[in-house]
Write a structure and sequence with these properties.
Elements (H helix, E strand, L loop, with lengths): L7 E7 L3 E7 L5 E2 L13 E2 L9 H14 L5 E5 L10 H11 L4 E5 L7 H6 L5 E4 L6 H8 L7 H14 L3 E8 L7 H14 L3 E6 L14 H11 L3 E3 L16 H10 L4 H8 L3 H13 L3 E6 L2 E6 L8
Parallel strand pairs: 2-5, 3-4, 5-6, 6-7, 7-8, 8-9, 9-10
Antiparallel strand pairs: 1-2, 11-12
Helix pairs in contact: 1-2, 9-10
Length: about 325
């Protein structure tokens, strides 16, 4: 049976990062935003105060164990159930991980706190930093990302520009488009101008591909996504669903490991199989039992069947 990690999840199949070991350093769901498209669900605690919300020492102990348990990782990714830069120990966590493994460390952030010099310093040692920028105008920013009242989109753009000037790693900017909210010609033109100033190494154009927090958050169709891609130039790519072939291991499908994934986000049986390197038939057998025991729910999104934990998404619950 897999170790019952509290702060580690996966490895999960990432559309950008390959097989990625997730590291949760924030309680679910503490975030600076309450994005309408968020796959983790609505924000329970929207805040901007930084402190060591979860203990860095315990997190690092689990990362060490997971690195030994899962050789061949593509990335160790600090992300999870909230905004990771809210944890004031993130810099210590990044540097410590890099001291005991050569696996690249990535940080997925909404970018809202890169306005602060101390936050920019904290993430300088990551191999990859992938901030988001979904809107430039304050009106659209508030519609799509529902920010903490003290956040301003203009300041966030300036924070991203400042970070680009300081950071020497790979900067991957993600733009997630929601149909009829931030995909208008006017907002896209503003985003293009902002991207020219930020100068990311890559631009990842994304849309709603997993069950969102709000039912009205609909994906932009594929043809339109490729049209928009041309606006951002050669560094821009449309991010698709991770469909690489994966190995399977001859081991028993662990309900606890599956539940750990489903506490954080809805996933398909195929996604679980890929993440945990298990045979799909074994995963399905466990999912049937979990559904019968009412620990998970099943629902459909965009023609696919997803599974999600019924209990709280808090990994400490």
């Amino acid at each position: 049976m897999a170790h019952p990690f509290r702060y580690i999840f996966g490895p999960v199949p990432s559309r950008r990062l390959g097989y990625s070991l997730g590291v949760d350093i924030i309680p679910s769901k503490l975030c600076t935003l309450d994005c309408v498209y968020c796959e983790v669900g609505r924000t329970d605690m929207r805040g901007i105060a930084r402190k060591e919300y979860l203990p860095a020492a315990e997190i690092l102990t689990e990362v060490r164990e997971a690195v030994e348990q899962y050789p061949g990782l593509d990335h160790i990714t600090i992300s999870g159930s909230g905004e990771p830069t809210l944890n004031s120990a993130i810099g210590t966590i990044i540097r410590s991980i890099r001291s005991f493994t050569r696996t690249p460390v990535a940080v997925l952030t909404n970018g809202t706190l890169l306005t602060l010099p101390e936050v920019r310093r904290d993430v300088l040692d990551a191999d990859v930093v992938s901030p988001s920028l979904d809107a430039v105008s304050q009106e659209v920013f508030e519609r799509v990302d529902r920010p903490h009242p003290r956040l301003r989109s203009a300041d966030i753009v300036e924070g991203l520009v400042a970070f680009r000037n300081e950071y020497r790693g790979d900067l991957w900017l993600e733009i997630l488009l929601v149909r009829e909210i931030n995909d208008t010609a006017e907002e896209l033109a503003r985003l293009v101008q902002a991207v020219e100033r930020i100068r990311p190494d890559r631009i990842h154009l994304n849309t709603v591909v997993r069950p969102p927090a709000e039912a009205f958050a609909h994906p932009v169709d594929e043809q339109r996504m490729h049209e928009i891609q041309q606006m951002f130039g050669s560094r821009c790519e449309v991010i698709g669903v991770f469909r690489e072939k994966h190995k399977t291991l001859d081991r028993v499908a662990d309900a606890d490991a599956i539940l750990s994934l489903l506490r954080r986000r809805g996933m398909t049986a195929a996604g679980i199989s890929m993440a945990l390197e298990l045979r799909i038939e074994d995963v399905l057998r466990v999912l049937v039992a979990m559904e019968r025991d009412r620990t998970i729910r099943v629902f459909e999104f965009e023609g696919e069947q997803f599974y999600q934990a019924i209990e709280s998404a808090d990994p400490e619950s």
